Structure formats: C-alpha cells, structure tokens
C-alpha cells in the first residue's frame, strides 16, 4: 500500500536486526491512535471525514486483494488530528489465502476473545472454522465506527456501524454502501 495517503509509507527492509522501515508519523511524539483521540473535543463532521478516509483506505486495501485482519482503534493513527494512517500489517493476509479461526465456544480462549478482542468479527470469535474475509474487515471497521458514534453521541453513525457489524457476514454492508451512507450524513 506504499503510496496511498492513508497507509504508512514502507521504505524497505533492514537486514540486521531484521525489521521494516516505515514513515515516521509523529512530530515530537508518536501520532495519537483513534483510541486516544476519542477523548478529544472534535466536531461530528471531523469524525465523519475520518470515517470516510477509513472506508476509502480499506477499500483500496481490498482492491489489492489484501485483508488487514486487525484494524482495532490502536492501529488507526491520526496525523495532525486529521489525516488517517493505518498501521500494523502483522496479521495481513491475501484474500485468496485467508486464515481460519478455530476458537471453541466455552473455552478460556473463547472468553478471552469475546472480552478483549471484540473488534474481531463475530464469526471469528464464535464460529470455529470461520475464515477472515472482506466481511470480517468490514465488521472491524464498523466496530470502530460504533466507538466513534458512541463518543460523539451520533445515532446515525451508530446505525451505519450496526449494518457493518451484523453477526452474519453475508448480511453486512459492503464498503460502497457504507461510503454512500456516510456521505449522506455530511
């Protein structure tokens, strides 16, 4: 995703120690994540633009056949409180080679995932044998939109989020519909 405005720029790899070299996002400190920025006093239209940027970024990611698989609020940075930057591609997969989750209901792992990892799609946490998909990324994005909607007290944004976080993957909104719904709120 190098070259897309909403993803950190990857300069390359360093061999010793083995690591990736990414664009520096912050100025004096690291840019705040969505989780931190939610405590800031920002107007609703600002948040709508953040949501629109996130939809466009995820759509571009999906257009390249990629799944993020971990788009929680800590992996969404806001540069200068305006510019969305998605980070942490450690769980990224190709859509043609998805990862299967096998979390058995009633286990400690199941309880942990349904407590600490609620941003993961419902089916990944509750239905053993479920695979990551476009729909699971949409769920995660919807989870973030619900957080924002709760914070800014927007029933409209929370309604958009509810269609993104339906328990059944095939019932979730597609990103094009989400983009349309958000644009109507401006």
TrEMBL record:
Pfam families, A to Z: Pkinase
PROSITE patterns xrefs: PROTEIN_KINASE_DOM
Ranges of residues in domain Protein kinase: 1-186
GO MF, one example: protein serine/threonine kinase activity
Record InterPro entries: Kinase-like_dom_sf, Prot_kinase_dom, Ser/Thr_Kinases-Pseudokinases
SUPFAM superfamilies recorded: Protein kinase-like (PK-like)
Protein name: Protein kinase domain-containing protein
Protein's organism: Clytia hemisphaerica
């Amino acid at each position: 995703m190098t070259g897309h405005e909403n993803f950190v720029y990857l300069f390359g790899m360093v061999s010793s120690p083995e690591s990736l070299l990414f664009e520096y996002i912050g100025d004096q400190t690291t840019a705040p994540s969505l989780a931190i920025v939610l405590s800031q006093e920002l107007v609703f239209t600002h948040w709508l633009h953040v949501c629109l940027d996130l939809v466009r970024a995820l759509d571009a990611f999906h257009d390249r056949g990629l799944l993020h698989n971990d788009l929680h609020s800590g992996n969404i940075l806001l540069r200068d409180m305006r510019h969305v930057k998605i980070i942490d591609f450690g769980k990224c997969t190709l859509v043609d080679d998805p990862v299967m989750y096998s979390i058995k209901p009633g286990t400690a792992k199941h309880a942990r995932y349904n407590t600490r990892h609620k941003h993961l799609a419902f089916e990944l946490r509750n239905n053993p044998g479920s695979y990551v998909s476009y729909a699971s990324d949409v769920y995660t994005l919807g989870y973030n939109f619900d957080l924002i909607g709760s914070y800014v007290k927007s029933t409209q944004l929370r309604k958009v989020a509810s269609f993104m976080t339906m328990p059944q993957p095939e019932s979730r909104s597609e990103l094009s519909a989400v983009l349309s719904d958000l644009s109507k709120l401006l």
